[in-house]
């Protein structure tokens, strides 16, 4: 999904309560992550919530990266689902260019998330970028993983 599509979706929601509920719904739709993948390697350590994210090569196009993830809190799980939707199916280069400040400013979420949540969200995006970079360097391992 492209940022402009998300901006359009969020534009239909008139207030913070609607956006908050939509984020929770996005999180509820996030497929569960396999327990075996909830490892320290995939855990977002700087987030107050328990969050895991894993980059995998797109099976149809190994040049593209997909993500899966899990979180134990509703709002951050929704943010995680939004980020996964935004960057899955993209190249490593496109993922590296993701500007989380622009995303949250354009979705009108930036002023409603606490500073602690901002730190956690930056940590999620940083881990996604790191994992995508590793996949780009080790394409054979990524395909067999």
Based on the model shown, name its key terms.
two-stranded antiparallel sheet; single chain; Sufe protein. Chain: A; disordered C terminus; 145 residues; mainly alpha; 2 strands
Description of the molecule:
The structure is a single chain. This protein has a two-stranded antiparallel ribbon. The protein starts with a helix and ends with a helix. The chain has 7 helices and 2 strands, in the order H-H-E-E-H-H-H-H-H. It has a single domain (about 5-145), classed as Alpha-Beta Complex (Sufe protein. Chain: A). It is mainly alpha-helical and about 140 residues long. Helix 2 (about 15-30) crosses helix 3 and helix 3 (about 75-85) packs parallel to helix 6 (about 115-135).
Topology:
Blueprint: H1 3-11, H2 16-29, E1 51-57, E2 65-71, H3 74-87, H4 92-96, H5 100-106, H6 115-137, H7 139-144
Helix pairs in contact: 2-3, 3-6
């Amino acid at each position: 999904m492209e940022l402009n599509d998300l901006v359009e979706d969020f534009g239909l929601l008139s207030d913070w309560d609607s956006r908050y509920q939509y984020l929770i719904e996005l999180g509820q739709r996030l497929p569960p992550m396999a327990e075996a993948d909830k490892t320290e390697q995939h855990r977002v350590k700087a987030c107050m919530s328990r969050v895991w994210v894993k980059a995998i090569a797109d099976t149809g196009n190994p040049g593209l990266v997909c993500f899966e993830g899990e979180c134990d809190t509703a709002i951050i799980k929704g943010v995680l689902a939004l980020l996964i939707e935004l960057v899955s199916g993209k190249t490593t280069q496109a993922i590296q260019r993701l500007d989380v400040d622009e995303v949250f400013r354009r979705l009108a979420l930036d002023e409603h998330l606490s500073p602690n949540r901002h730190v956690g969200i930056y940590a999620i995006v940083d881990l996604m970028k790191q994992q995508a970079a590793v996949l780009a360097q080790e394409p054979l391992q990524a395909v067999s993983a």
